[in-house]
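Possible regression after last week's pipeline update?

I re-ran a chain I had predicted before the update to compare outputs. Posting the input and the new output here so someone can diff against the archived version. Not blocking, just want to make sure nothing changed silently.
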Amino acid sequence: MSYSLFPPPAVSPVELNATLRQRGYAVLDAAGVSAASGCAPEALHALLPFWDDLPPDAFLKDGGRYRRRRHSCFLVDGERVTQSPHRAHWQPLEYNALHGGMQRLFEPMQPALVQQAVWPCLLRWLGAVCSGLKGIQPWYVEAHPFRIDTTDGIGRPTPEGAHRDGVDLVAVFLLARQDVKGGETRVFEADGPNGQRFTLSEPWSLLLLDDARVIHETTPIQPLAAAGHRDTLVVTLRAGGFQGDGQKRI
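New output (post-update):
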């Protein structure tokens, strides 16, 4: 059975900031990510094996077994990147009707990953992009390595549906698509009727979202073979503090 992959609307690194300001989202291909961030392609690809060591998500309210993940927090202040003490991930119900209001304590990212020189390089660049969009300030960063698989016959990258995250910038890196169909990215205006759909398929391609302006989701995946998976790295940046620190955004 055939299915269509709509190519993502990738822009060049020099168009990135203007596109984010104009549309509220922007896509870079892998070459664009490397050129814009200064992170060498081989260094980025060296991170991929860490996605084979993600524990199951024990907090899925739908009872699914299709999601594996870790979670760690960082502070990016200009060129300085520091890892924050391990903490639970928390979102208000306004942003996550399915899992909001829960203190979800996931296993932290592997020290060997965080100690790779490319990791702070990537976070510094995302901090600079966010400062270019929102103004220069420290950024409270949450990093989520995900693997969505087809253990249950279907995997849901965004079981909460179309949503915002309650942050300033969301970065969704596609790291791998293996033997799956579906997984279509959909981005909509938060206060309007317009939207776009496309499929990220290139390792280390990137979707950046101005969270105040757009809503996003990814459709479920199904296997093309006996088993398949979709790996992503989601990084969120927020001003003023981590969610759950007494600050609320609507």
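Follow-up from reviewer: compared with the archived run. The chain has one domain: 23-238. Marking as no regression found.
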